[in-house]
Design a protein that fits this description.
Number of helices: 2
Helix content: 10-25%
Strand order of the largest sheet: 1-5-2-4-3-6
Order of helices and strands: HEEEEEHE
Distance between the termini: 70 Å
Shape: globular
Strand content: 25-35%
Radius of gyration: 21 Å
Number of strands: 6
Largest sheet: 6 strands, mixed, barrel
Length: about 140
């Protein structure tokens, strides 16, 4: 004969497990933010937008222009200027953040095609970079 207590106990344990997993997920995401203070640096991998995004709206509301020196970053404020250095060849570009992303693991910035060309990454597609906030 069932007293009805067993499902309540299981639900309570399950609820605590869900809460714990959510908190662990939030803690893991919080550690990757880059400061937008001038001089702040970060490093990781850069990729660039494919041409099929030309004219699409960015998170800032402006349209993506493959010929503009722009980029996507997960946390930097829109309008922030960042110096991107390709660590394979030391070529640099200054970009303005106007979109959110990238959403691929290990990537820190998505560049416009123009910026990718300036730092010499068109052929490889993904390169190690250093980011430095300018203003």
């Amino acid at each position: 004969m069932s007293t009805g207590l067993m499902p309540a106990r299981c639900w309570s344990k399950g609820r605590w497990l869900v809460v714990l997993l959510c908190l662990l997920g939030l803690v893991g995401c919080a550690g990757q933010q880059m400061s937008d203070a001038p001089g702040a640096t970060s490093s990781g991998k850069a990729s660039y937008y494919s041409d099929r995004h030309q004219g699409a709206r960015t998170a800032s509301g402006e349209r993506y222009d493959k010929n503009a020196m722009t980029a996507a970053h997960r946390t930097l404020a829109f309008g922030t200027r960042v110096r991107v250095t390709n660590l394979d060849n030391q070529r640099q570009a200054v970009v303005r953040i106007n979109d959110r992303g990238p959403f691929s693991r290990g990537r820190v910035i998505d560049l416009s095609r123009a910026a990718a060309g300036q730092i010499g990454m068109i052929k490889s597609g993904v390169v190690p970079v250093r980011l430095e906030v300018l203003k």
